[in-house]
Amino acid sequence: MRQLIEFGDRKFSLYRVINETDKIDANLLKEYWHCDTVLKKDNKLYFCNEIKEIDYAEIGNESTTTN
Q: What is the separation, in whole angstroms, between the first and last Cα of the chain?
């Protein structure tokens, strides 16, 4: 199970954390690691995937009979 990060009302599954001072191409790593989001805090880059909320409707147990 991956660590979860909450950012505002959004949730993310954390994949990897690296120091920002490393000479890296964040966009290249984002693509390589199949991450959709990179967050930055305290000179660290957090490579994550957003956990999407879905809209759904309850399926009722109403039975309809036609005679």
A: 53
